[in-house]
Amino acid sequence: MLHAPAYSSVTFSSNHGRQAADRRVSSTNPAAVAEWTVERAGRILIAAGAVDEEFVHEVGSEIMAACTIRSRNRLIRTGMVTQMFRPFENPARDPTAHPLRVVPIGQAFRLAGERWLADVHFMSLVSTPAQATIAVGMRMGRPPDGSSADLEVTGAGYHHLPYGRLWLADDRGRRYTVTFDGEGGPEVWRGVLRMSPAPPPGARWLDLVADETNRLIRLDLHQTAQAAAAVRENLAISPAERLLEVEAEAVLADPLARRRGRPGQHGRDRAPDRDRAPDRYLGEITRALIEAGLITADNVAACRLAALCQRLGVPGPGPAIAAAAVRLPARWASVIAQRPAPAAGPGLFAPLATVLPDLDRTRFALAGLSLAAGESHLHVAASGLPQLAERFAPGWQPGFSWWVRDGAGNWHLGVMAGRDAPPAGVAEFLVRLIPPLAVTPQAIEVLVSASSAAVRAVVPVRAAPAMADT
């Protein structure tokens, strides 16, 4: 049966802790300022791998006790302080308990309504013993008579499908419940089709059936996932330097930063205040790392971050960090050199069907590559994914970095697309490429980095499938 959407979109740094990151305390309350300062410094050092949550919790509890004893006014606020310094429990995760199986599909069909056309693309099936999803893309447009599709109001998506019920059936007659999950804009919807239960490994095909008797498409499951040339690399950087690299990538991906001063202007041609990139607390982060002895003011990672901020004209880590004599990494320079991004690009929904080697106890499956409406996305499934949190929030860690190199040698930064973080454990999400791919590649190089290692894989890109009408 067809069920309502969950619409669980994702982002590289989730918004769950944004309120904590942006919270301000009154300067007239020295105790609150002290607590807030210590907590933020503690979160920075946790993210840099210098201390753990238990240590920060103990220090915060001691400060709370001292403030409570010295100030009668603090007695009524202990609940807030206890919440501020509560221990963070990271959900247990074990990717070996959820092995990922990926099967390429690469099929599509076209539906025509009274006021719209819809091309529905099925890229790859990704399954664990307990659940399965199919990476799906849906491109919508006007019908041949040119009438308005009203997509600016309704948006693209499976809600346009003119059916009361949808379900899947395999070659042995077993039925599977169908649920859609994802998000879209006026022209394109991207997401997954969830099916329950997971089909057995021996299933040869799946029929997508509407209203009991209307078979929309038969999805062949006989293809074999392609073996990508993947290598694992150790990263010769400290956890503190890794944190600064991730912060630099966030600056590079910021849409406001991309509109700021031109190279060489060093921020003199700045946008109005309402268009300024938000303060990313880079000065506070680098200062905490320097004062804790984790880096020096001339650390290469810190200087690169300062040079990037200076190049883009955005608030940086402060004057203590020298940036003049540092060259930007080739990947960063490649992203900057491709600005501005083309307004439109190629159209493609291709199965990748590649499982990457485990990285920091997390396993990723590349389910597809979609190029549509001027944007490029990787469709990814993960097993053993850690909980993601905004900076200064409980559980804040640098997380994973995503990079893609196209056939021309240009690099594209990947950021999780959407509004919320995916749940810990087994999850599916989109990685939006900045800038989008300008041409359809024959292969892409995918680089995923974590705290101490990275995985690099060259993945072939299959041609777009032939369209079947229904």
The main pleated sheet reads as: 10 strands, mixed
Uncertain regions spanning at least 5 consecutive residues: 1-20, 74-88, 260-274
- The total of helices stands at 10
Helical content class: 10-25%
Tally of DSSP β-strands: 19
Give the N-to-C terminal Cα separation. 20 Å
Summed over residues and divided by their number, the pLDDT gives a mean of 80
Beta-strand percent range = 25-35%
Q: Determine the structural class based on helices, strands and strand pairing.
A: alpha+beta
Shape: globular
The arrangement of helices and strands along the chain is EHHHHEEEHEEEEEEHHHHHEEEEEEEEE
- Backbone CA Rg: 24 Å
Tell me what you see in this structure.
Helix content is 22%, strand content 31%. The protein has 470 residues and is of the alpha+beta class. It has a domain at 232-328. Strands 1, 2, 3, 4, 5, 6, 7, 8, 9 and 19 form a 10-stranded mixed sheet that branches. A 9-stranded antiparallel sheet has the order 10-18-17-14-15-16-13-12-11. A hairpin with a 3-residue loop joins strand 6 and strand 7 (188-196). 43% of the residues are buried.
What is the strand and helix layout of this fold?
Elements: E1 2-3, H1 18-22, H2 30-47, H3 53-70, H4 78-84, E2 101-112, E3 117-127, E4 132-141, H5 151-154, E5 166-170, E6 175-184, E7 188-196, E8 205-210, E9 214-220, E10 229-234, H6 239-253, H7 255-258, H8 282-291, H9 300-312, H10 330-337, E11 348-355, E12 363-372, E13 375-385, E14 401-405, E15 411-416, E16 425-434, E17 443-449, E18 453-460, E19 467-469
Parallel strand pairs: 1-6, 2-19
Antiparallel strand pairs: 2-3, 3-4, 4-7, 5-6, 5-8, 6-7, 8-9, 10-18, 11-12, 12-13, 13-16, 14-15, 14-17, 15-16, 17-18
